[in-house]
């Protein structure tokens, strides 16, 4: 599956979950979980897209139709398990911010995104 | 200067500017500009913090006290120059989203962040 790096979200307003993290030393199992969570998130009602990048810090921003969609996804049983393992093993620190996107604009040189 | 990877923002509400980009082939001058923009942003009124990560995609999230602070920073003369060169040279595509952070929570294993 070719994923666009810049999510194709609809006209605002919509919601963003900004997840910023730093990995712990122990990252066994992380890559598989991360791929599975992206796959699973994309199947949830109200999902609009996801963007992520990682070097020293990791930033994943997922976009959602409304707060209720975010609540349902947070409480998904497989996601709960991933959150728990993240706290126990993969992350030394993270922060989650729930934000209402009020305006957006973009630029594309080649019209592909 | 040691920068925290996870920005130490105050209690919500505050604002986030989510900047997601893909680089063009031409990135000469980008690293210096990026460092200068981070330094300059941190001097602006209403600046609360910044987080960034880059692999295939780049995501930079800057945090601000209010929309007016974001407007003033967007119109800063050096920042305008960087935005123009970004469109002309460094980015093949980007998207900017202005969002109101309504809630946040975090986790830290070692209490450092």
Q: Can you describe this structure?
A:
2 copies of one chain form a homodimer. A 4-stranded antiparallel beta sheet of chain A has the order 2-3-1-4. Chain A is α+β, with helices and mostly antiparallel strands. The longest helix of chain A is centred in the C-terminal third of the chain and has 14 residues, at 77-90. Chain A has helices spanning 30-41, 67-74, 77-90, and strands at 14-23, 47-54, 58-64, 91-108. The mean pLDDT of chain A is 93. The A-B interface holds A 5-7, 9, 12, 16, 18, 20-22, 24, 51-59, 61, 87, 91-110, 112-113 and B 5-7, 9, 12, 16, 18, 20-22, 24, 51-59, 61, 87, 91-110, 112-113.
Largest interface: A-B, 44 and 44 residues
Topology pattern of chain A, helix = H, strand = E:
EHEEHHE
Average per-residue pLDDT of chain A, rounded, comes to 93
Largest sheet, strands/sense/barrel of chain A: 4 strands, antiparallel
Rg of chain A is: 15 Å
Task: Provide the fold topology.
2 copies of one chain form a homodimer.
Chain A: E1 14-23, H1 30-41, E2 47-54, E3 58-64, H2 67-74, H3 77-90, E4 91-108
Antiparallel strand pairs in A: 1-3, 1-4, 2-3
Helix pairs in contact in A: 1-3
